[in-house]
Amino acid sequence: MTIATELFDLTGEVAMVTGASSGLGWRFAQVLAGQGAKVVLAARRTERLLDLKTEIENTGGAAHCVALDVADRGAIVAAFDEAEEAFGPVTIQVNNAGMAIQKMALETSEKDWRMLMDVNLDAVWWCSREAAKRMISARKPGCIINTSSILATNAMPTLSVYSITKAAVSQMTRSMAVEFARHNIRVNAIAPGYVRTEINSDALDSAKGDVLKKAIPQRRFGEPEDLDGILLLLASEKAGGFMTGEVVVVDGGHSVAI
Asked: Which of 8, 26, 87, 162 is catalytic?
């Protein structure tokens, strides 16, 4: 008989979460640590990471903070070096760091474009490659979990560049899954709909937010904990070992509503 606690047990795994200083990254780190993984917390705001580290350790988990600007390729290598020194090779890589700039296409500057590409797309590529190279070198199975979006397949005014980056992340997920499978490395992505975080709460609570909510069949926005189950499914070899190349939508039915 399969026991759920064993199915999602991540004891012995080392997880790196980028963008861990707030929002979904903060929650992802908590959840992975709660299931026994040693978690490397990576972000630019190290003072926030220290608060999360304390919180995880106070509940019996293990965490280590690394300063990481994902737009800096050299910093990515250094972060993995530090992670290995602290806990050993990363076996669960969660590429969560991202940003959005809301501008119409004709108002988007070259700087805006480059910034979004650097953080939302290029960083996912380089972090995934670095994680995979080190898993292969250590001869360890592992997984890479990317954060995509329902806007990877749907369009909304003012978010064209963001949507482009997320569409590319989804395709990157599929492509890397095919290449890395021979090394026993799974690559999947979570594509959330509108999930409430400290960054977007004011917007979602506005009049425009009320209109947006009515387009969601469940008539509510998601909460970070709504992604706990899919995160653990994709992270656990026991639970999701035969899943790779998938982009899993979690959006209350928003993207399929007619």
From this structure: 162
